[in-house]
Amino acid sequence: xxxxxxxxxxxxxxxxxxxxxxxxxxxxxxxxxxxxxxxxxxxxxxxxxxxxxxxxxxxxxxxxxxxxxxxxxxxxxxxxxxxxxx
Length: 86
Description:
With 86 residues, this protein is mainly beta. It has no helices and nine strands.
């Protein structure tokens, strides 16, 4: 999935849809992998590219819950703004 870089609104809020990523002025980088809720990546290295996309390393692992309350996770990469699940 091709992600989308978003920026905080006038109030400083960062609203992420699936696949979005952005830099929150207080919380740092936030990402929302496909099918997941948003999460922070404070222990990751983020490289910003000239076109506004980012590459994150190491791989991203976010935990979430489905509609029934069962755990699910997303594990993969965000490279030049493109999400790739492993």
